[in-house]
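Complex record, two chains
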Amino acid sequence: DIQMTQSPSSVSASVGDRVTITCRASQAISSYLAWFQQKPGKAPKLLIYGASSLQSGVPSRFSGSGYGTDFTLTISSLQPEDFASYYCQQVNSFPYTFGQGTKLEIK
Amino acid sequence: QVTLRESGPALVKPTQTLTLTCTFSGFSLSTNAMSMSWIRQPPGKALEWLAHIDWDDNTYYSTSLKTRLTISKDTSKNQVVLKMTNMDPVDTGTYYCARAVAGRKIDYWGQGTLVTVSS
């Protein structure tokens, strides 16, 4: 199975800050990576697919990059509604696997 | 619009078999490139991918759980069913179904259903 490792596991930031979350795959996955946002008690929401494609309706302050084994999710200017947990998922090969998550908290 | 809803028992006993149903609308699983996944999340923990079924009935399973899982679909009812045998308290969590386009873009999720395993 492909292991996905996210860092950091938690981060504190302020409104307006720029935040970057990284995800590393244990083997190359081309650009087959997605990012999800999850708020407490809610289902995950797709933010980015294909490593860098913004899902329809997602604000442009979210962006993704990377290829192969190393990927990043960047939030350019944090808004109050962005404080949540974030997960990466590889969809290169089955079984699909998720990272362990990053909790983004208010400083 | 696309909607998905999970249903099933909220409480199961250890060793029992869990059967969850995902009922969806707004698309057809008989359409080329449509597929469905099941994903779960223990309380306070990370997401875990469980199983996947394609429009053409190809199925895929979590390596660690594959001996316990069966995924199937009923295209006429717009339903996908997940069965998990020999339930254990560690299987407690919220179970989600989600739509995948071209097998790789998981774009719509159900609200999730909480399953507790306890005697």
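Note: Chain B touches chain A at residues 37, 39, 46-49, 52, 60-63, 96, 100, 103-107, 109-112 (CB under 8 Å).
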